[in-house]
Amino acid sequence: MSQIQVEKKEQKVLYDYQKRDIDKIFSRVEEFPKNYNLLYQLPTGGGKTVIFSEIVRRYIETTRKKVVVLTHRIELCGQTSNMLTEFQVKNKIINSSVKELHDQGEYMCFVAMVETLNNRLNDDQLELHDIGMVIIDEAHYNSFRKLFRFFEKCFILGVTATPLSSNMKLPMKDNYNELIVGDTINSLIGNGFLAKPVTYTYDVGLGSLKIGMNGDYTVKSSEELYTNMIMQDKLLRAYEERSKGKKTLIFNNGINTSIYVYETFKKAGYPIRHLDNTNSRQEREDILSWFKSTNDAILTSVSILTTGFDEPTVDSIILNRATKSLTLYFQMIGRGSRILPTKSKFTIVDMGNNTARFGLWNAEVDWQSIFRSPDFYYDNLVGDEEIERNFKYVMPEEIRKEFTNSTDIEFNIEEEYAKTKRYNLRSLTVLEKSIEQHAKMCAENSEDVFDARILSRLLDMDIEFRVKRYSYCISKSTKNYRDWLEEDYKRKLRSKINQLFMDD
Fold first, then answer.
1. Other C-beta atoms within 10 Å of 200: how many?
2. What is the DSSP string of 86-112?
3. How far, in Å, CA of 72 to CA of 137, rounded?
4. What is the largest CA-CA distance in the chain?
5. Rounded-to-integer distance, Cα 125 and Cα 120, Å
6. Model-level pTM?
7. Which H/E stretch holds residue 350?
8. Would 176 disulfide with which of 39, 67, 126, 317, CB 3.0-4.6 Å?
């Protein structure tokens, strides 16, 4: 290594908030040198790898004991090893090709994949000597728990952007004695370390989604919703309204959805590629290289790019999925938060009501409460039905143009329902009045009954919205009942249109 390289590495600068947190962590190391598990939270982009690399350097220097750094992805192993080298920590990666460690005396730090190290230790193929500290990157993943028994006399430091376990049945408070919370996202934005988000939300009915064993929406039910043509058109329109021309990452829940997105955007003439975990390493490298070098590139994928992927030029994040995972929500959006001299903000397009569920990405979060009482946090998440009760249908501009002769296109279901209660009318009077208004709109903007009936098909989303509001009013909101009401509404609307033209 040349002297110039050494000098360059010595110039690694730690920011004030990073120094402050390192000092806090070291105060615990000094107080509890053995058998203490500490968790540290810092937002994506705050420099967690920089912080724990400096901790490794300082720990080795002050204690002369060795450190193991654990990751869950092979890409993170390489990135971590490189950062440790920048901090002049000589380290060795324990990957699948490493069967024995005859040269472990030459290293003070080891970087290992959790599964690889677990296999080696269980098979008695490796015996690590003089380990004083274990650092766990992305500590919210539960795969690390299996290794704790091998390091019972060590100081364990877990680092994560979201101190919430990936398995709600295995809370992090059961494995960590304490949580230290770093700077907030807003503070990092205000001090110029992260880009400012500009968030746009599109209401999506999630009534058809099912919850799986892991507590999140199933891939199967998500694919059924997000591959239908209405959702594909909605996604394309959202992209054209908010992200067109920007380097964009689209996250989906399911490979088929991502492929559908690829075909939809390709057909519309946009530069797009699809990436999933079935792509070979070479294909992945080619796709990411293309994405990096193409200014208006669109990359559609499943959750493969949530960790271990860093492309600061990403200008727009589209969440083309719903998730119940706060961690995944932060990880996906975090891919767009890197700052550049030419980039001070980035766009978030939410197509899964995630913002309504979790709050804005840069909103204040009480991580200490979540760490102490994760069940309370989960129990108090806003439910999908409650989110949808606050939806308001806004007629898209291209549909509104088809009804230019109509001045009145709004209809307040709740207000009309209140009248039925006040004047002791049948509740169905509400839908009958709504049908009359829709029929009038179709007749006003058509030359004959055939045109009017074709025009009525453009009202499907408005009808769905009105029927849903009505079902909330009468406290009868099962999907089967709403489906029946919608079909009955459309049948009566066609009859009413016929009647209007016969009267004329």
1. 16
2. HTT--EEEE-TT----TTGGG-SEEEE
3. 8
4. 96
5. 5
6. 0.84
7. strand 345-350
8. 39
